[in-house]
Amino acid sequence: MSEARWGGLDREALLGLLRQMIEIRLFEDEVMKLFQRNLVRASTHLCQGQEAVPVGACSALEPGDTMTCTYRGHGAVLAMGTPLDRSMAEILGKERGVCAGRGGSMHLADLTVGAMGSFAVVGSHLPFACGTGLAAQVMGTGSVSVCFFGDGTTNIGAFHEALNLASVWKLPVVFVCENNLYGEYSPIASTTPVTELWRRAASYAMPSARVDGNDVLAVRAAVASARARAAAEEGPTMIEAMTYRHMGHSRSDPAAYRPEGELERWMQHDPIATFAAALPDHDAISEDDVEAVRHAAAEAVAGALERALSWPEPEPRHRFDHVWAAPA
Amino acid sequence: MSDAITYREAVIRALGDELEADERVVLIGEDVGAAGGVFKATEGLHARFGGVRVRDTPIAEQAIVGTVLGAAVSGLRPVGEIMFADFAGVCYDQIVNQMAKYRFQSGGQTTVPATLRMAGGGSLGFGAQHSQCVENWFLQTPGLKLCLPATPADAYTLLRAAIRDDDPVIVFEHKALYGIRGELRDDGLPIGAAEVVREGGDVTVVATQLMRHRAMEAAEQLAAEGVSCEVIDPRTIAPLDTATILTSVGHTGRLVCVQEAPAAGSWGQAVIATVAVAGFELLDAQPALIAADPIPVAYARTLEEATLPSVERIAAGIRSAIDA
Ligand SMILES: Cc1ncc(C[n+]2csc(CCOP(=O)(O)OP(=O)(O)O)c2C)c(N)n1
Ligand SMILES: [Mg+2]
Predict the structure, then answer these.
(1) Could you tell me the domains of chain A?
(2) 324 residues of chain B, pLDDT tens digit each
(3) Three-state DSSP string of B201-262
């Protein structure tokens, strides 16, 4: 098979992408079960069906690069390399969670791997991403920031302010719009007449493109070239990744607004199933390799879950920690 | 009228009755239409009144509030929903600089019959950006009326009054109260009138929303210990019914305010300051404010529970006010 088909990646790297996507899928299966057991509070927003976007995009980053994402951010944060167990622990509200139980499912962050935060007020992280880009530019670090957001987010003011600023300052940011066709319960066409969202970047003279967001290698390639452009100080890019969430918006949403057959059609184009089916075409990858990856991912998630469950809750007397830089 | 309905149903009923009564009333917000709102507090209204008067907006809080304001001074009586009250931060300018000041700055050329609804409050595990009681963010802004319904009856009465009011009104709904049941009655208590919800002689306890319910539980416990609490729900914090509170303190001599938000710059502090200034001689002891700790609301249950005033913390606070 041609090098091009595999995006120049070797066997290990390809299996690594598969492994990450499967881990995210299984991780969220467990989150859902924990939710049903009342161990996850309030709400949780699964990215199941969209795993190829964060995994493909983050695989194109270099050490020192940063990432921001939304409340639908489990996949993005894990794709940056945040440990499974401490992510699960955060969602369980444990002291050893990545955010010491303060953040929860909507706010996973692990600055040690460049996962700068999961933002739950729509659009609030796009200006933040400009800030990470500004810091890289001023300090000359050469690092790039990738910023994930949804289709519905393109209607809020912060989106437009951030794209304009990033473009006029040539900030090293890659804006990745995960177009899953809905903002909450509203199909995108009901909230904007510009449904090819990549076109919106033209208002800010920013290059943009639409890719198949369920094709992990296509996402990776698009982000890799946007990253190269940003690193070359040529400015930001917007990528619209077409994808679909298998579940409702949040745990309380049965997604009754979906037209019949839509979910089934997208399930046929599941990012994990299609990639797993394609990989054995690679000269050095067998069906057994794929199976072994599935097995290893399942073990990793099961082990992480067990550890996270065993860890203690935060002590109420520590609730004043982390508010101020100096201890109270 | 005396059937028990939920707080959520009371909101729907108030909106429905006003949409029915006055064709200038419109309702806009994110997913308030066919989906019936994320808290299901607008369910059925789109089917009843159609997409011209009940409409979904894009995710665009500045546009929601600005549109409500523009429509309000152009002949409509619009209601805008800001889903989680925390998102008022996104459109703060539209609320405090534009909506609150439009009439004043025009030299009184027009009224601004605008209503905003937003769902606040914690105890549900939504974390720091989806759990706040934000009413105090607006206390510093003359020109806004601020309503805090704690019961289905008040959710109904205050929301209807807000829509009929000629000034901008914000109705803060409480997420943890949507499911509570109560009798639907419109006793005509206007915006600006407090309600004495439990009579007592030893201490005046002023509390809103979830804290009113917790204060009532605490009062019940204290009654068994021989302490008699008079519980007052101010219902609205701007305008604030200081007369009812002063009258009560006049016969109890003691004042405790209970609120879910932190203390700094809050209505609870304002009540205490007002009583200290206008009713100093009525007080037999120093007033107390039982409030959330001055920290963001954490996601973890252990931390959130310790941060917000519990029934136990309220009862203990009232006991020490009695002993003071
Ligand atoms: C400022 C603001 N308004 C409203 C919300 C409530 N809300 C949470 S997610 C969401 C939909 C976002 O849709 P989209 O950007 O397409 O992202 P998706 O959930 O599909 O990943 C809304 C309206 C919010 N969190 N913040
Ligand atoms: Mg979406």
Answers:
(1) 46-83+106-285 (3.40.50.970)
(2) 457 999 999 999 999 999 999 999 999 999 999 999 999 999 999 999 999 999 999 999 999 999 999 999 999 999 999 999 999 999 999 999 999 999 999 999 999 999 999 999 999 999 999 999 999 999 999 999 999 999 999 999 999 999 999 999 999 999 999 999 999 887 789 999 999 999 999 999 999 999 999 999 999 999 999 999 999 999 999 999 999 999 999 999 999 999 999 999 999 999 999 999 999 999 999 999 999 999 999 999 999 999 999 999 999 999 999 998
(3) CCEEEEECHHHHHHHHHHHHHHHHCCCCEEEEECCEEECCCHHHHHHHHHHHCCEEEEEEEE
Select from B31, B39, B61, B83 the residue to mutate for testing ligand 1; criterion: most ligand atoms less than 8 Å from CB.
B83
The strand pairing partners of B195, in sequence order, are B233
**Same-domain pairing of B286 and B203:** yes
Contact B126 A41 (CB under 8 A): yes
Report long-range pairs for A248-257 (Cβ below 8 Å, ≥24 apart): A249/A45, A249/A182, A249/A184, A249/A185, A250/A43, A250/A44, A250/A45, A251/A32, A251/A35, A251/A43, A251/A44, A252/A43, A252/B38, A253/A184, A253/A185, A255/A185, A257/A182, A257/A185, A257/A187, A257/B34, A257/B35
Name residues whose C-beta falls within 8 Å of residue A287's C-beta, 6 or more positions apart in sequence: A280
Task: Tally A–B CB contacts below 8 A.
Answer: 121
Residue type, A225: S
Residue A248, chain B, CB below 8 Å: the answer is no
Task: Say how many residues make up chain B.
Answer: 324
- Give the range of the structural domain holding residue B245, as residue numbers without chain letter: 195-323
Residue B174 lies in a domain: yes
Q: Which residue, chain included where needed, has tokens 């993005």?
A: A76
Residue A35 · residue A251 · CB < 8 Å: yes
Flag whether B189 is in a domain. Answer: no
ipTM, interface predicted TM-score of the complex: 0.95
Establish if A102 touches chain B: CB-CB under 8 angstroms.
yes
**Residues framing ligand 1 (Cβ under 6 A):** A 70, 72, 120-122, 149-153, 178, 180, 182-184, 249; B 30, 59, 61, 83, 87, 90
Contacts of residue A95 in chain B, CB cutoff 8 Å? 300
Chain B residues in contact with chain A using a Cβ-Cβ cutoff of 8 Å: 30-31, 34-35, 38, 56-62, 86-87, 89-90, 124-130, 293-296, 298-303, 305-307
Domain boundary among B183, B218, B237: B183
For residue B190, tell me if it sits in a domain.
Answer: no
0.95 exceeded by pTM? yes
Total number of domains in chain B = 2
Within this chain, do residues B199 and B151 fall inside the same structural domain, yes or no?
no
Q: Which residue of A has its CA nearest to B84?
A: A121
**Contacts of residue A6, Cβ cutoff 8 Å, sequence gap at least 6:** A14, A217, A282
Q: Which residues of B touch A155 (CB under 8 A)?
A: 58-60
- For A89, the closest chain B residue by CA position comes to B300
